[in-house]
Each structure stands twice: as C-alpha cells, then as structure tokens.
Amino acid sequence: MLSAMERAGNEELTEDTEKKGLGTPATRAAIIEKLIQSGFVKREKKNLVPTDDGNVLITVLPDEIKSPKMTAEWEMALNHIAQNTETADEFLNGITELMQELVARYQGISEEKKNQFQGKAKGEVIGKCPRCGADVQEGKVNFYCSDRNCTFTLWKNDKFLASQGKKMDKTAAKKFLSKGKIHYKDLVSRKTGRQYEATVEMVDPGEGNVQFNLIFPQR
Question: How wide is the angle at C-alpha 179 spanned by C-alphas 175 and 185, nearest 5°?
C-alpha cells in the first residue's frame, strides 16, 4: 500500500514533474494508521483490508476526491509555484473554489447511506488525550484521539492486556486516561497460568503505539 501511495497519480504527471505520490514518506504510514483508527481499514495478519464502513465511504465520496488525478494536478501546481509560473495564492484559491463547488454539489448524503455506516461519526467521549489534550472517543475497534493530527490510540484488542488475561474495555480505557495505570489483583501469568497481582502502567512514547509496563508490589 505504501508503494501504491508513492506512485499515486504518477501516470497523470508530466515528465518534468517531480513524482512524490500521495503525501510524503513521513506521512504515508500515518495516513494508513488514521484509516485504521477511524474504522475504515483493518489489519488481518499481514494484510490491510477495507471494513464495511470503508466500502460504504468510498461509494459516497465525490469522484474528484477519490481520483489520483487530483494528486497529480496539485503536484504540478506546486512545481509551477517553485518555478514562479504560478503563485501560492492562485493555488489556494483553486482549492477553495473546488471545495465550495463540492460542498454545493454534495450538501449531504441520504439517510439510507448514513444508515449503512456501522460506526458512529463521533463516539462517546471517555477522556482526554495525554498527547494533545483533545477528547478521546470510542470507536468500534479502539479509543482514539478526536484530533485528526494526533495518532494516540488505545486498541480494544490490545495484545499485552490480552496476554495478561485482561482487555481494553471502556472502563479500563477511562482509568488509563485519567490515572495512567490500573492495579490488578487477578492478572494471569503467560508462563504458569496462575493469577498474580501487579500494576499495569501506560507509557506513551509521544508517537506510535502506547506501551505498558508491569509494576509489582513491594514485599
């Protein structure tokens, strides 16, 4: 998918246009993560597959937004700005006019289309994001930051908690967001299968996935 994003719109570009595809190398992975967080794509082993909501979304989006041709046109416009044959204001005005046209043409989708989405546009707010302070909302597969520029996520199928006999449900997510840790008396050892007592501490590296540490009570 990353390779496809890198080539997006290349067929529409002229030979003298620098081919950068969709986004930059630093943002392409983040774009994919955001699609997963929003419930439009899911991981199945090593594959990324569209969810039902993702399939519905692609049917309701305007063709202009879905086409790689727009990427090519914007890339060429940026090249023209670099060559001083077009101004930044002209480029931004073109984007504004396009958005106004699309909004006027597609003021909303039918109730029938809305009902095809299984997820909610905005889930229940369960706390504040430790990275940016925005609301954290509940999705179908995760608890995600409502700020689109932030990638903070708590996954409902978190592998670490599952390995300890626990799950990232709404109650657990709220506690991690408010206190940063949860004390359990009935964690399950992966090696012995026995229960033990420990505190699970959430550690946020500031980017990527959060991590968890085990803190054992002093004897």
Answer: 65
The tens digit of pLDDT for each residue in 73-103 reads 787 888 889 889 999 999 999 899 988 888 7
36 burial type by CB count under 10 A (0-12 exposed, 13-18 middle, 19+ buried): buried
End-to-end CA distance of the chain: 51
Q: Side chain identity at 54, as an amino acid letter?
A: G
**The model scores a pTM over 0.70:** no
Quote the pLDDT of residue 120. 47
Run of H or E including 80: helix 68-82
49 backbone dihedrals φ, ψ, rounded to 5°: -130, 145
Among the listed residues 4, 9, 2, the one whose alpha carbon sits nearest the alpha carbon of residue 77: 9
* C-alpha–C-alpha distance, residues 210 and 146, integer Å: 17
Query: On the CB side of 31, how many CA atoms lie within 13 Å of its CA?
Result: 12
Half-sphere exposure of 175 (CA within 13 A, CB side): 13
Q: Are 105 and 83 in contact (CB under 8 A)?
A: no
For residue 132, give both structure tokens.
Answer: 């940016």
Sequence-separated (6 or more) residues with CB below 8 Å from residue 18 = 75, 79
Tokens of 106: 């597609």
| Mean pLDDT of the 50-63 span | 83
Please give the helix or strand (H or E) that residue 125 lies within, else none: strand 125-128
What pLDDT does 93 receive? 92
